[in-house]
TrEMBL record:
The protein, known as: GAP family protein
One protein family per Pfam: SfLAP
Keywords: Membrane, Plasmid, Transmembrane, Transmembrane helix
InterPro entries registered for this protein in UniProt: Gap/Sap (IPR021315)
Stretches that traverse the bilayer: 6-25, 37-56, 68-86, 107-134, 140-164, 184-203
Organism: Natronorubrum bangense
């Protein structure tokens, strides 16, 4: 059951600039190598953070101090939702996304490693997975499904090009444009998932 509990966190990992970056790279000139490098970099950083969190959190047990921390996290998340909504008209993708259409494999690898490993929501999610498994006495390999499913979602834009070819070439730019225009909605959904998870942990 603990294995199934952490799988929904995959959607937190990919929401926002993460999946948008994967789409951009899938529409770049050297999309095969760029996409592969991006996913490979992501696999290393996600696995690293989850593993470190697991072993550092091996002595953690749920208690009153943990509940207090989760309440503070909930307050911060709700404030973030309000802030994103108020700034929705100003919402724009990060400036570095302008480089993705002309990216090379080295840049793609670095982006995958840094974005998926150390982007605020991603590092928090990976730490949550590692410490959750450790605190419940579960083996580290339970995180394998979480890591692999995250990587699969990141690979979907490039896999769609391999599988459906021309239709994907037409569809992906439209998806990219929609996500650029509505990035604040994606951010709200990601934060809302975190809110639901936090409330569940507090109540449970």
């Amino acid at each position: 059951m603990n294995f199934l509990v952490i799988l929904p966190l995959v959607f937190v990992m990919i929401g926002g600039p993460q999946i948008l970056s994967a789409i951009f790279l899938a529409t770049s000139e050297d999309w095969r190598r760029n996409s592969a490098a991006f996913v490979f970099g992501a696999s290393l950083s996600i696995s690293l953070v989850v593993t470190l969190a697991y072993y550092l959190g091996s002595g953690v047990r749920q208690g009153g101090s943990n509940r207090t921390l989760q309440l503070l996290v909930l307050v911060v998340l709700l404030a973030a939702m309000v802030n994103v909504y108020l700034k929705r008209e100003q919402s724009e993708p990060p400036t570095w996304m302008g480089k993705l259409e002309t990216a090379n494999p080295k840049f793609s690898f670095q982006l995958g490693f840094l974005l998926m490993g150390f982007f605020p929501t991603d590092i928090l999610t990976s730490i949550t997975v590692g410490t959750y498994l450790a605190s419940h006495g579960d083996p580290l390999w339970y995180a394998t499904g979480f890591v692999l499913l995250t990587l699969l979602f990141l690979a979907i834009p490039s896999l769609s090009l391999v599988m459906i070819g021309d239709r994907a070439e037409t569809l992906l730019p439209k998806v990219r444009t929609w996500m650029n225009t509505n990035s604040w909605i994606v951010s709200e959904i990601v934060i809302l998932i975190f809110v639901a998870i936090t409330i569940n942990n507090i109540v449970g």
